[in-house]
Amino acid sequence: TLTSTDKVVIGIGAGVSVEKKTEDAKVFLEKRKEELTKYFEQMNNAFAKLAEEMQKIEMTVQKQQQSRVPMSAE
Length: 74
Prior knowledge:
The chain has about 70 residues and is α+β, with helices and mostly antiparallel strands. It has one helix spanning about 20-70; strands at about 5-15, 15-20.
């Protein structure tokens, strides 16, 4: 059980934890959440661009392979 709710210990990164007032910790964590959400969106966008480029490359390779397949003699 918590003996005091006016201060909490939070991790600030690199294995470092600090004691902060509850309200300060809340503000810190909300800011961190916003930053992580922003980075997640950036990573998602980068992933989507990579997937699109991969599809383009795959289509190019398929076209090249099709042009190399000899036509059957009729």
